[in-house]
Write a structure and sequence with these properties.
mainly alpha
Length: 118
Amino acid sequence: MVEDLTNVIFSSAVPYLLSTAGGGFMGYVIGIFLKHAIKIILFVIGGLLTFLVGMSYKGYISANFPLIQHDTLSAISSGSQTLGHALQQAATQFGDSSGYLGIGMMGFAGGLVLGLKH
């Protein structure tokens, strides 16, 4: 009787545990990747801006910095609106699902936070 109860508990809990652990591991790996990718992208952007300012200071080029600032801010605004729309669409699509996906997403979110902190 006790063995049957133990088997039922483990057979019903194992898929949820595997989904949580798998989601957490994938979130952790993706978090580490994003952290390093963002550092590289920001380093390249900083290098390009430093090069642009140096060339402008020496007089080789003339840069319209207010226009650059306006275009950069509008690109960031457009990108954030696109990301917000994509997240809202994903939440709507996956909001009705239950079970393994929701548990896996919780594990993924926790792993992503830990990966970004690493």
